[in-house]
């Protein structure tokens, strides 16, 4: 299957790293690596760090790059992408950097070439907003965070019906 072509520029501090690649034929994301040179980066519990990849990209118009966590890092180390998914807009030409946060209970050290995130290139649909006086009603209505996960048993124990 032929995908969308994305122009990639290697920056000097990432020149020795391979280009991002799909780990398997069925993978949705390309692995992004840390471009740290001889330095190591330690992220303490609760801290965050902007990690360079040594790459700049020209995402085609009509697409975006979504920077997502790697599940293994999240499960083993508690390391995840803080603004997941991070967005690389089609008109951005600077270095791709990954904002990592350590949600674990011990420091995590990142070295040059470590896989730190994944990049999914996806189509973008642009919305056309239409201002109205009122919105149509739905079963859910204005029920917010967690409102669709309430069981019927919990509902019978004092959960009130929300207007829609």
Automatic annotation (TrEMBL):
Key words of the record: Hydrolase, Magnesium, Metal-binding, Nucleotide metabolism
InterPro entries: dUTPase, dUTPase-like, dUTPase-like_sf, dUTPase_trimeric
Needed co-factor(s): Mg(2+)
Enzyme class: hydrolase
Binding locations of substrate: 70-72, 83, 87-89
Location of region: Disordered: 141-164
EC nos: 3.6.1.23
GO BP term (any one): dUMP biosynthetic process
Pathway named in the protein's UniProt entry: Pyrimidine metabolism; dUMP biosynthesis; dUMP from dCTP (dUTP route): step 2/2
Task of the protein: This enzyme is involved in nucleotide metabolism: it produces dUMP, the immediate precursor of thymidine nucleotides and it decreases the intracellular concentration of dUTP so that uracil cannot be incorporated into DNA.
Name by which UniProt lists this protein: Deoxyuridine 5'-triphosphate nucleotidohydrolase
Lineage of the organism: Bacteria, Pseudomonadati, Pseudomonadota, Alphaproteobacteria, Futianiales
